[in-house]
Amino acid sequence: MADLIYKASLAIVPRLYVGLSMLWFSSCRLHVEGNAHLQDVVKQGGGVATFWHYSILYMFYHLRSFPAAIMVSASKDGEYIARLAQLLGHTPVRGSAHRQGVRALKHLMREVEAGRNAGIVADGSQGPARKLQAGSILLASKSGRPILPMVWAASRYITFNSWDKTVVPLPFSRIHFQYGEPLFVPAGIKGEELEKYRLELEGRLNGIYERAWKSVDSGPHDQKKADSNG
Question: Lower CB density within 10 Å: C or N end of the chain?
Answer without folding.
Answer: N
